[in-house]
Amino acid sequence: MLLERGFGLYYRACLQCSLASAAPQLKPQTVRLAIISEGVNTWPLYVAQEKKLFQKEGIEVEVTLTGSSVKQLDQLKAGGFDIGFQQSDHVVSAVEHGADLFIFMALAHAPELSLVVAPGIRSFADLEGRDIAVDGARSGYALLLRKLLADKGLEDGDYAFREIGGSQERFDALKNGIAVASMLNPPFDRKLFAAGFGSLGTVSDYYPTYPGAIAAARRSWGKRNAPQIIAFIRGFSAAYAWLQDKNNKSEAIAILPERLKVTPDTASRAYDQFVARPRPQITPQGLQQVIDIVWEAEGLTGPKGAPDKYMDLGYLRKATQP
């Protein structure tokens, strides 16, 4: 009797193993992510890839480096990408021109973008008649730069914006003398400072409450793929939490030089700055600043939309629920 029972248990165990091995394995859905350029702000993305944190949430993230905010935004609107790391003014402007986009998560604090200037440029007045490298002349931080230049006495026509591309491209433009100034994020600004370039200040010096980069998607895609957006937020959030754990500093600073070709010392300083600040957020109040600048920059005459016209943080709330 005991022998028969033993054979029965063995048989059922074998059958369960057989059924488990025969069961189809669900393939993780691929989320197509577009980023414009690389920098410290994309550090959590590198961690999520290295630690397979997106896969743990059941998705694969396919990353494309576009090198251009205009190209990235156009393809995001058209469905070529599912998620894009962008500046919030791009989304506000795109929505006002009929795009089906929305902001679902803050990516970073407003970066410590430095207005890097060539040797010999000592003041804003020295920029008159010179070329300034930007990503897109009517979008992103170029809008803030245009406002800053106006506040400092330089109007349109007193200088020329040259649409060069992302951080690496603008870095190259300054280094090669194609332009004499540009807004650049670490570590690109630090490299130029070490080569003798100067600075006329940072974004936070002039606009301390302006929001940083965000993650955006199409509303129609989000409604069909809510689990994927939530999984993306959770994977990214896990990477951010891992970075903020100072026990991981050595491993974290080993990841950055490999991706950005910076020295370990530079990565160590960047890490200390990164963990000194809380997880970034985007608020209705912060987005309202962006809306105001877009209306001013584009000369829009219609009524301004409320922040929730361009933002839906419901996915973020669901992703952070216990």
Description:
This protein has 322 residues and is an alpha/beta fold. The protein has two domains: 29-110 and 211-319, 3-Layer(aba) Sandwich (D-Maltodextrin-Binding Protein, domain 2), CATH 3.40.190.10; 114-206, Periplasmic binding protein-like II (D-Maltodextrin-Binding Protein, domain 2, 3-Layer(aba) Sandwich), CATH 3.40.190.10. It is built from 15 helices and ten strands.
In short:
With 322 residues, this protein is of the alpha/beta class.
Question: Secondary-structure map with pairings?
Answer:
Elements: H1 2-22, E1 29-35, H2 43-50, H3 53-56, E2 59-65, H4 69-78, E3 83-86, H5 88-96, E4 101-106, E5 114-117, E6 131-134, H6 141-151, E7 160-163, H7 167-175, E8 181-184, H8 188-194, E9 198-202, H9 203-206, E10 214-218, H10 219-224, H11 226-244, H12 249-260, H13 264-275, H14 284-298, H15 314-319
Parallel strand pairs: 1-2, 1-3, 6-7, 6-8
Antiparallel strand pairs: 3-10, 4-10, 5-8, 5-9
Helix pairs in contact: 2-11, 2-12, 5-14, 12-13
How does the overall form come out from the CA principal axes?
globular
Secondary-structure element order, N to C = HEHHEHEHEEEHEHEHEHEHHHHHH
> How would you state the average pLDDT, rounded?
89
Strand residues, percent = 15-25%
The helix tally amounts to 15
From the coordinates shown, what is the CATH architecture of the largest domain? Answer: 3-Layer(aba) Sandwich
CATH superfamily of the largest domain: Periplasmic binding protein-like II
CATH class of the largest domain: Alpha Beta
CATH level 3 topology of the largest domain? D-Maltodextrin-Binding Protein, domain 2
